[in-house]
Design goal:
The strands form 2 sheets. Strands 1, 2, 6, 7 and 10 form a 5-stranded antiparallel beta sheet that branches. The two termini are about 30 Å apart. The protein has 1 helix and 10 strands; from the N terminus they run H-E-E-E-E-E-E-E-E-E-E. Helices cover about 10% and strands about 40% of the residues.
């Protein structure tokens, strides 16, 4: 089951990375559906470990069957395997993607919680959060699903 989720996430990443447009749901007039995705949460860093908790939200007007959120750090992740939750995959030296699952219009998704280890125990890191794939829906307000947060190695929670 975990392998199937991993492959599904990688399939979405490859489709986006190769420029293959996912099928868009048709609205009443044959237009693509519209949804407005955003992410809110917190990040805490202690000794090179970053704990991230985020909740996806769809402000509507249409439901989204699934989407993918990307998290990027300003320093590389530690070498070797990261223990990521089901639905998340490491996609590069500094990047992890996670699927959100279905998001009802004007509703919250399941909270995503992950822990990553950074190379070299930095004292600060910038984490960027954005939508990689929006389930085929058009998002006309991309400003609220693209965020950056500076996280210091203090053990304090930094909210976004």
């Amino acid at each position: 089951m975990r392998r199937m989720r991993f492959l599904a996430v990688w399939g979405a990443v490859l489709a986006v990375g190769l420029g293959v447009a996912p099928a868009q749901a048709a609205g009443e007039a044959g237009e693509a559906t519209e949804a407005d995705l955003s992410y809110h949460g917190s990040a805490v860093m202690r000794g090179g470990r970053v704990d991230v908790r985020l909740t996806p939200r769809n402000h509507g007007p249409a439901d989204v069957s699934d989407s993918t959120v990307r998290l990027r750090w300003s320093v590389p992740l530690a070498a070797g395997a990261q223990r990521l939750p089901a639905g998340c995959a490491r996609t590069g030296r500094q990047e992890v993607v996670c699927r959100t699952g279905a998001l009802a219009a004007d509703g919250l998704g399941e909270r995503i919680a992950l822990r990553v280890w950074l190379r070299g125990r930095p004292t600060e890191v910038t984490m960027a959060v954005d939508t990689l794939w929006g389930g085929g829906a058009v998002d006309r307000n991309r400003s609220n699903d693209r965020q950056q947060v500076l996280v210091l190695d203090t053990g304090d929670a930094y909210f976004f």
